Predict the 3D structure of the following.
Amino acid sequence: CTGFHGLSALGLSDLEQGWQRYPQARQRHLRPLPRLREGQALAALGLPFAMADSSDGLADACLKIAGASGVRLVVERAALPVHQELLAYAGANGCEPDGLLLYGGEDFELVATLPAAAWEALPHDAKAAFTPIGRVEAGPGDAWLVGEGGRLSEAMDLDKAFRHFGSGEGP
């Protein structure tokens, strides 16, 4: 995946609640940075891959790729990049950042699955924008979060995914 997930949702809450605590999150919400160059770099390789934007959340993108491809995506919790402001929010509220990280929306980041040959062929600047977060396995078109020891710990759930014009619930 590219970038940080959950940051825009935190920024929206920061704006709506008037907290003024998470300036980078607010900026990411107000001025999203679409990852056009990174997507174009993958496409230019001419190798097979799957990719989705995460505007409806990281879990949503993983589930849609897995479902369309008929595979299981296994995401390693420890590999997910977590922005410092998301960690600060979680610490201040005595919670894990996973809800925003997996199900917050409007991040406009990319989630891709690609063979090792495509990863190795990516130009350095494009590769630097991506963080490997998991693997593809044979499976029924689902996505799982893997915790310590490599155990499947949580099935990702589309019912928890970001909904535009939804309930308005914040973090």
Remarks:
- The first helix runs from residue 7 to 17.
